Amino acid sequence: MAEASFPTTALADGDAAHPAVRRAFGLSVTATLIGLAVLIAVGLLSATSGAAGLPVSGVFAALFDWVPLLGFDSTLSDQQESILFQIRLPRLVLGMLVGGSLSMAGAAYQGVFRNPLADPYLLGVSAGAGFGAVLALGFGLDLGWGPFDTVPAAAFLGALVAVLASMAIARGGGASPATLLLGGVAMAALFSAAQTYAIQQLDENRAREVLSWLFGQLNTSGWKEIWLLLPYVAVCGAVLFVHRRHLDVLRVGDDEARSLGLDPVRSRLTVIAAASLLTAAAVSVSGLIAFVGLVVPHVVRLLVSHSYRVIVPLAALMGAAFLAFVDIGARTLLAPDELAVGILTAIVGAPFFGLVLWLDRWSTT
Questions:
Q1: 295-333 pLDDT, tens per residue?
Q2: Of 154, 236, 316, 334, which sits 20 to 30 A from 305 (CA to CA)?
Q3: Which pLDDT does position 141 carry in this prediction?
Q4: Mean predicted lDDT score pLDDT of the chain
């Protein structure tokens, strides 16, 4: 992937740079509004789609009925309100949080490793997080309260081991981006094998539950999963958002970054830890969902900007919209049966990413 080249002073001075650089590195209001509009449109489509169709006007009235002083009265029946607030909206919000988390983490990994092919799945982070979560779920360790649940903690440890092992392999191979990806593939294979072995040790019912979870799903029991994931998204997302400027500086190399007043080691470790915890938290509630963290940042990069100041926040918006949209298909394509959303993201994401690579090849030759 070709990346735009700009003066390093622009990376340090930000808005003090000349207008061309400001446009390239600034977060466009238009792009942000379009992203929000797409997110709202997908959310409305998700809330009204399904085996029990809900009217658009009724959904709006029910939502605004919760806002004081507006004077709206819900026109939905009690059963329809139960479907909306206990099934549709929790699943929609969970899908948006997971999609935004994986996309933001993918953009962060691509920036910190200076490799456009890095993402939680290819680096083995998702597999490591999945292994930790399988141990917690499969052997009855899913205990805890609120954000201190043991499942995301176990997933985080697995994710951290996987990414550190990939980095160690890359350092031994001269820190080559190709070596990093190959190390990630090796870690993904290792942790996938460990997952399989762990599942084989479970009884049949427990193994079926864990396998269903591993395929990637957004099934919710009310709002419990949202409250579990939300603190991690808020804290880690804020860390990545604040450090998005550092990712632009790291692109020019560690020596240049130091000359611009940035500590590359500390910034890199902070971003890796935040992205790994964010991935682990998402995996702990949704299972393994591939290609979201790889495809979405590339789409933002190709359509909007090469700057991580833009890619990180817009990837969060578009990732949320993408996974919520895919989940509509997962719920409706085989209704009343349901597809695992992880399978559908792979079916949609793999050819789409191939098309993006092909178009980018021709745009840069």
A1: 899 889 888 888 899 999 999 999 999 999 999 988 888
A2: 236
A3: 66
A4: 80
Q: Which residues contact 250 (CB under 8 A, 6 or more apart)?
A: 111, 112, 114, 257, 262, 264, 267, 268
Task: Give the tokens for residue 115.
Answer: 């490799």
Q: Annotate the chain with three-state secondary structure.
A: CCCCCCCHHHHHHHHHCCHHHHHHHCCCHHHHHHHHHHHHHHHHHHHHCCCCCCCHHHHHHHHHCCCCCCCCCCCCCHHHHHHHHHHHHHHHHHHHHHHHHHHHHHHHHHHHCCCCCCCCCCCCHHHHHHHHHHHHHHCCCCCCCHHHCHHHHHHHHHHHHHHHHHHHHHHHCCCCHHHHHHHHHHHHHHHHHHHHHHHHCCCHHHHHHHHHHHCCCCCCCCCHHHHHHHHHHHHHHHHHHHCHHHHHHHCCCHHHHHHCCCCHHHHHHHHHHHHHHHHHHHHHHHCCCCCHHHHHHHHHHHHCCCCHHHHHHHHHHHHHHHHHHHHHHHHHCCCCCCCCHHHHHHHHHHHHHHHHHHHHHHHCC
Q: What is the pTM of this model?
A: 0.83
> Pick the residue with more confidence: 98 or 263?
98
Q: What is the largest CA-CA distance in the chain?
A: 65
Which residue from 139, 119, 121 is spatially nearest to 130, judged by alpha carbons?
Answer: 121
